[in-house]
Design brief:
alpha/beta
Amino acid sequence: MEDLQQKALTILIPVYNDWESLNLLIGQIDQTLDRSNLSSVSILVINDGSSLEHQIHQQQVSQLQKIDTIKILHLSCNMGSQRSIAIGIAYLANYAQSDLVVVMDSDGEDKPEYISELLSKNRMVPENIIVAERSKRSETLLFRFMYRIYKYLFLYLTGQRISFGNFCLIPAVQLTRLASRSELWINLPATIIRSRLPIDKIPTNRGERLLGKSSMNFSGLILHGLSAISVYSDSTLVRILLIFSCSSVCILSLTFLFGALFNPFSGSALIYFVILLLLFFISVQSTIITLLLIFQLISNWAQSPIIPNNSYSDYIWFEEEF
């Protein structure tokens, strides 16, 4: 059933030094946003400890027609984009009067015209988180290849499929539930999946950066992918344990079979026999290490996790509104 009630929208954008792109993005949002079913529109910028002086063009702000207010939360230090988003979500869960929150990046790769499609989908399923699933990507062949590997790793190690990034719409009713999950510090998309909150998707194409080049290097991309998998660290470790355990059994069986069919202490057979024994001991050692990591993880469950909803204010330096 479609929800026709007018709602207040906040667009959450983390930014680190990318102020010129942000100004262009704000202009594009104001031009493309369909405000027919919105009572108010505000933008919440999370300044992630930028080393460059923040610049919101005052003249541009005065000419905005669909955006009512722009607020900047200045963080006391650089936290990274995922933690910045977590702080923003927790802040909105506690203080904002918004009915809907759209999370997007400041570089323009999340295309503003899809915001209206997220809103349209929300009117059909008002309590669902709507995520922007990227059906077409514009990166290099190497990046697309590595991204496909990441998706397969995520599937095999967690048992879940992931096909979206930070670009999403979160109804206010789900904000507190997300902000109460400690995994939100690590990775928003994986946390949304793990939360088991209702999700719907819209297909989108990835846009191109408005200005400059991405500050994310290759190692940063790998860490970003691993952070998503780490949200499922418990199930990932269990799957790795099963892999190493099965490998140990298989290698041990091969070792006994080899010993039964050949004389393991004669000629070249000795080399293969030693290799099998080494593989067996490595596999057993890996199994033991993984098992110890699982025990450590279970013991950590007795400790109180750091919840964004409880500690986000510790990282806010000051607020600024335009």
